[in-house]
């Protein structure tokens, strides 16, 4: 259906149906491979030529054999480097597409989700090129902004950042921009984002169920801006998506959150800091109100931090095996919610040290249960739940009702799969109660969710014969996961 919008300065959207790098000096950028405007998105990711990274059908359930999760023969002792942050890479790609000059992303994440975002901004008129860089996991990206225009198609895959960050950018384009994604993406809530655009005067038409993919944004080349009141209690991405494009609105934007506390609030802080890095003026003195002034978006030359949430299962491996894992490059200061892992592992019995060389986690041989509010870092819940299933006392994980709307219903999936291995996990309205029981091998289904796959691998370190279904779903944010995992286990003790 198509709905006309009212005045953005007075309308209220309260839909209840329902993620920092360090700047470095600029370097030369030789011409490289590029993503073209008519690109499509590939389910794999990795370091392949970007034109091949974009292409292929939406991700479907894997028919590959289940992966036998390796069991640790003793304490793990390893140094593990992980690729760049997905949350930061995708924010930087959006800002680079809106900037006035070219930007360079150094050591970005090359994965399915970031490939989808690169394809999205390319479809709207930016030029994204691979250029040689010093990162260990692939080339840098040079992003040259261009006039935003449709008609265009944006393939969202299963990436919440794409389906929620790009529609406000599409509203600034001239012409229709159609959004669709994987079958599972059509269940992820979008009503808040679409209602907010309509309140700003943007025409949005839905081709399926109201408030869900697929939909089309009818861009006119400008958005007036003004003031919005929204309920973002289902996802912080609704706030971040509006803020990222707000400086390009005629009047800027004021976003006021009304409703239950926003989950994953550090991701909004990340967005605000990324905006300030490119010269955008943001007032967030009130924790529920964000004011973005209209104005130019500056160019980026930024080193992308390692992805701390993707590092979580590797750090947790030290706790499970009573070993030692060192993660170089862990930032001293960061807006990544994954940094909360340090305190969680400490509470569960690990010795955790952060210094200028990175993060070191040493298992003590003990693994304690925990009572933890994970509302700020729901993406850590699968790792913490896996640890809790192996602990020596019960755990309660709270504040994560919102992860029912992630790639899958993560609460139901974690309970079902851990219980399927002999565990005792009960869902609560906003989390899980985990009572440790002796576990046995079996199939650990992942439901197309990358964090379910890594949780299964973590349990497999201690429990023999765990078979992880569709482990390649980890390519969503961490291509090559199984190689990194087995290398960690095979590294000679130091």
Task: Give the SSE map.
Elements: E1 2-3, E2 22-23, E3 34-35, H1 50-53, E4 67-68, E5 77-79, H2 86-98, E6 103-106, H3 112-123, E7 127-131, E8 140-144, E9 152-155, H4 160-170, E10 174-180, H5 191-199, E11 203-206, E12 215-220, E13 226-230, H6 237-246, E14 253-257, H7 266-277, E15 282-283, E16 289-292, E17 301-303, H8 308-321, E18 324-328, H9 341-347, E19 351-355, E20 358-362, E21 371-373, H10 381-389, E22 395-398, H11 410-420, E23 424-428, E24 431-435, E25 442-444, H12 450-460, E26 466-468, H13 481-490
Parallel strand pairs: 5-18, 6-17, 9-10, 13-14, 21-22, 25-26
Antiparallel strand pairs: 1-11, 2-17, 3-7, 4-26, 6-8, 7-8, 10-12, 11-12, 14-16, 15-16, 18-20, 19-20, 22-24, 23-24
Structural description of this entry:
With 494 residues, the chain is α+β, with helices and mostly antiparallel strands. 27% of the residues lie in helices and 21% in strands. A 6-stranded mixed sheet has the order 2-17-6-8-7-3. Strands 1-11-12-10-9 form a 5-stranded mixed sheet. A 4-stranded mixed sheet has the order 5-18-20-19, covered by helices on one side. The N and C termini lie far apart (62 Å).
């Amino acid at each position: 259906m198509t709905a006309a919008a009212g005045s953005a300065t007075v309308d209220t959207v309260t839909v209840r149906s329902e993620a920092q790098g360090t700047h470095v000096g600029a370097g030369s950028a030789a011409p490289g491979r590029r993503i073209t405007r008519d690109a499509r998105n590939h389910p794999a990711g990795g370091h392949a030529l970007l034109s091949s990274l974009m292409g292929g059908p939406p991700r479907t359930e894997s028919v590959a054999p289940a992966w036998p999760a390796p069991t640790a023969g003793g304490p793990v002792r390893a140094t593990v480097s992980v690729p760049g942050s997905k949350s930061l890479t995708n924010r930087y790609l959006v800002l680079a597409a809106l900037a006035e000059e070219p930007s360079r992303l150094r050591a970005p994440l090359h994965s399915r989700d970031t490939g989808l975002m690169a394809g999205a901004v390319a479809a709207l008129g930016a030029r994204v090129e691979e250029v040689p860089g010093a990162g260990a996991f692939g080339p840098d990206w040079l992003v040259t902004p261009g006039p935003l225009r449709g008609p265009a198609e944006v393939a969202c895959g299963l990436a919440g950042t794409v389906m929620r960050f790009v529609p406000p950018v599409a509203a600034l384009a001239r012409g229709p921009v159609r959004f669709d994604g994987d079958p599972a993406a059509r269940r992820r809530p979008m009503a808040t984002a679409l209602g907010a655009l309509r309140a700003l005067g943007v025409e949005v038409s839905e081709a399926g169920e109201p408030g869900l993919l697929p939909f089309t944004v009818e861009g006119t080349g400008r958005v007036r801006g003004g003031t919005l009141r929204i309920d973002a209690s289902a996802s912080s991405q609704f706030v971040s998506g509006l803020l990222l494009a707000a400086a390009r609105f005629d009047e800027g934007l004021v976003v006021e959150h009304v409703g239950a506390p926003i989950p994953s609030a550090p991701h909004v802080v990340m967005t605000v800091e990324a905006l300030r890095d490119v010269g955008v003026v943001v007032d967030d003195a009130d924790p529920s109100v964000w004011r973005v002034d209209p104005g130019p978006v500056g160019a980026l030359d930024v080193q992308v931090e390692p992805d701390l949430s993707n590092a979580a299962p590797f750090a947790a491996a030290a706790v499970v095996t009573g070993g030692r894992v060192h993660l170089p490059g862990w930032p001293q200061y960061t807006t990544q919610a994954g940094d909360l892992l340090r305190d969680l592992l400490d509470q569960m019995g690990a010795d955790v040290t952060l210094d200028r060389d990175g993060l070191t986690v040493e298992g003590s041989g003990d693994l304690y249960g925990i009572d933890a509010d994970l509302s700020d870092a729901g993406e850590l819940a699968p790792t913490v739940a896996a640890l809790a299933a192996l602990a020596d006392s019960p755990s309660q994980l709270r504040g994560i009702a919102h992860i029912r709307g992630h790639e899958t219903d993560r609460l139901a999936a974690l309970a079902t799969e851990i219980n399927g291995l002999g565990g005792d996990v009960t869902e609560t309205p906003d989390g899980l109660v985990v009572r440790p029981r002796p576990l046995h091998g079996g199939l650990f289904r992942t439901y197309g969710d990358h964090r379910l796959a890594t949780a299964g691998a973590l349990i497999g370190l201690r429990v023999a014969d765990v078979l992880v279904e569709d482990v390649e779903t980890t390519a969503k944010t961490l291509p090559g996961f199984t190689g990194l995992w087995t290398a960690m286990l095979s590294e000679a003790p130091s």
